[in-house]
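Job type: complex structure
Entries:
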Amino acid sequence: MSEDASRALRERRNARLGADLIIPVLATGFTLYYLITSSNLVWEARANGTVVGVTLLTLIAIQVARVVIQLRRSTGSLGFGDLGRWTPAQAQRLMLIATLIVFVITIPWLGTTLGLFAVMLAAMWILGVRAPSTLLGVALGVSTTVYLLFIVTLGARFPAGPIENGLAPLFGGGL
Amino acid sequence: MTYSPTQSPLVTRRAFCGGLAAAGMMAALPVSRAFAQGTYPERNFRVIIPTGQGGGAERLARAFDDAWSKLLKRQFEYTFHPGAAGQIGYELFVKQREADGHNLLFGNMGPEMIMYAVQKPNYRFPEDFIYFGRTDIDDSCVFVRNDSPYKDIKSVVEAAKKKPLNVAVSRIPHPASIGMLALGEATGSSYNLIPYGGGNPTYVAVMNGEADIGALPITGVLSLTSQFKVLGVFNKENIFAGITENAPTINSAFGSSIPDLYSSRAWAIHAKWADAHPENFALLQSTAEQAHASAEFRDGFVKTGAPVESLKFGDRQVCTDYANAMVELAKRYEPVLSAQR
Amino acid sequence: MGWDSALFLSLFTDSLMLIWIVVPAVLLGIVVGAIPGFSAQNTLIILLPLTLTMDINVALAFMVSLYCATHLGGGIPAILVNMPGTGGAAATTLDGYQMTLKGKAQQALVLCFVASTVGGLVTSLATVALLPYLAQLGLYLRSVEMVAVMVFGLVLIAAIAADDPLKGIIAGFFGLMIGAIGTDHIYGTPRAAFGFLELYDGVPLVPALIGLFAISEAFSMMERSTVVPRSSVVDTKAQWADTLDGLRLSLKYWWLTIWTSFVGLVIGVVPGAGASIASFVAYQQARMFSKTPDEFGKGFAPGVVAPESANNGVTSGTLVPLMAIGVPGGSTAAVMMVVLQYHGIVLGPRLFIESPNIAYGIFFSMTLSYIVMIFTILPLARYMSQVVLIPTRILVPLILSLTIVGAFANREYVFDMGLALVFGVIGYIARKTNYHVTAILIGIILGPLFEQYLLRSLRIGQGDLTILFSSTTANVLWGFVVLSVVLPWLRGKQQERQQRNLQDRAPAALTGDQA
């Protein structure tokens, strides 16, 4: 048996059942929150949520039972597979998420154009782009296009910052 | 966009040939912002409409601002925040819009004050905002489609005494809905209210026979006279008797004493700003009154197919009294208007 | 309102005069349609001050062309990067992106363009011919019938997650649960909104769409250097040939294109439904009537044709109730109504007698816009398909930043940008663990509508559940629902039997050989 094939078999045997339970755990948490917070409403306001919620909990119970059976048969583990493994791609992904969170938080102050410029720069850097011309060129291109097409031409009311406010007397647009 | 629809001539091919970028250039036209620093209003108005676009509120607001913008020399820009019976728009207005006199709300006082009384949202009236420019009085009415088996309001009530009639309404917390509940109380008939979440879907429900009858503000119904017939009006008199085949008032038909139930749309502004800037507020209110009286507004309003008789201006005091009366009314019917047990 | 050839011919030639406004509107529509977050509706609202200044015929041609073009544009990113530009294109990702991964991006684009334009063209002409009947149709599909239509969509949840049905159904119900956030449809009381005002009106579709598809896909895509390995595209150097191949496939599925466009038209006529439902229902129907249902979801051409054709069939449908009875069928039609009324046009049956140039003209403008669209977009397919060769280290930042800004555009809440990110993370986990993101999305789209129609029906029935089976139309639809569940099951059984027979025969043959 080749090394690849034996690894594949090992991985199947160690099905990452922990990862399989993330969505059910999220769904259960939310369903319970829904059922508890809507318990004081008249039936029409909670009928749909209750029927869907109870069905969902039942389905999840079946899924959990399936996982338990697989664990008993030792055909899986409670590991998280790729999701829990620390790989360079995983690190990049987490850094991207962090960058996007900062982008969303700061956009009311930075404004759309500057925010886009910064987030493009940071995201490309995280993914390994190092050539200054690419970094600046793409970031500038994207933010300028969005500014001219959406904010100036279409007048979309995107969050305004120093650039939008500064250029408003010249171009107007959505402010 | 910061230019007035009425200031530019009709767009022709020649005007358009500069390409779509022309729109951008036009957006930059009113550089007048630079000239008027310090005098109110300093810039364009941003208006929240707490219902969806394309509804009665938008049509009325746009017709009104054609006249008003000329008096104030500023334009009006709208954003629509429907949902939760208007609660979203109001909360946004009170909490997130700056109280600087340039942020307005154009709402439907009747249903939205009933919502306020029932849902108890996180803002206070009249501490946080006030209404100051009522545009119309839109009586609630009972209507059917033209080929309905119900020919008059009495036949409706007779049928509803035998079995509950399905009534299409816009929302449960609405003056017209309260009217139906009050009619049931007064005559021993019963009505099963079905909310459709807006005027347009309510019309469709009556048209396709899904509901037996409908209860809504009258002006929208009158703009669809080819489809509908008005059977009764919840007010002291039917000012549209001429165009509703003399539909009676509900109270005159049954000798009941149901309060006048009408919707009234009005402009609202932050109370804090109005009290801190009495002169500016007075300017806003007086220009609203002038705009209301102008032929331009009335012509624009008639174009939407609505009858001009419903236009009646009301100032801050009139609006406050009406809004408070609606809150009182809603409290009386709270158990049937709310989902809370 | 009957067929009048002379009138219609003159109206069509009149609409040709408006080509100068149709072309820029189509181009703008394709661009905004392709960017998630922007839609015809919010673009038209933004441009309202401009359209109000236009002559009414020009304004209508502009709005209609832009509207139709957005419905086509939404399919482009759905096919190329698994990121539907509009809700109506969400179903296109199922097979469109799979085609891209197989190196057939260009064919998929051509299929999408031809299905969209032909579907749109056929239905706009059909609308002119059948307007009185279509207007009536809207009155036959009431809440009860719409409950059945919604169930069609829900059936699809089980169908698309065939490899692990339990996970698929859990994903679908999770979506339905998320769709139950927001105020209830009877009293307007908020439920499970986590105290966020922005969720009172339910979970907004655009951030959910962006998060579940675009952001989560971008997070997966970054592990590859390009969307599609260069090698698989370089193999097919003769690029016009791919366009022609796409055209050949489009011709092959001409009948599917036509009948699914009518699915879109009919659903479009019903107020409140819309393109996202129409495209999922069309996909489900196409799969049900297909001889090879198992091919769907694996990069099968009909899986692109059906949703795209229905998606554009909706465009003329939504205008029917607006023009014929004066009630807008959807949010874009509502914006058009504002413009029409601003010009003092009284909508309703009389409009067709008093101003046929406007009443019918709008559909001829639509016809023209579809003709313009096919000629402008088709030659671009070969260039667009090159997007899949952009290095992901540039494409991923581009998708992430543009779609998050797009999430803002629809409702203008910064909250929606954060929400898109949350859905992005949920979507990424779901993808990695094989919980179908499309199933979650179908739940989010259908959940609120299903609840609304069901509760309304129950109220109308005054507690009597048999109301759901009280009309002939509804019962016919329920029959179809049952068929769409039973047919695939029967087919599966049959295949199983055939396979068993083959297996039974095989050892016998083997022994025969030995003997």
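Summary: The mean pLDDT of chain A is 86. Strands of chain A lie at 15-16, 76-77.
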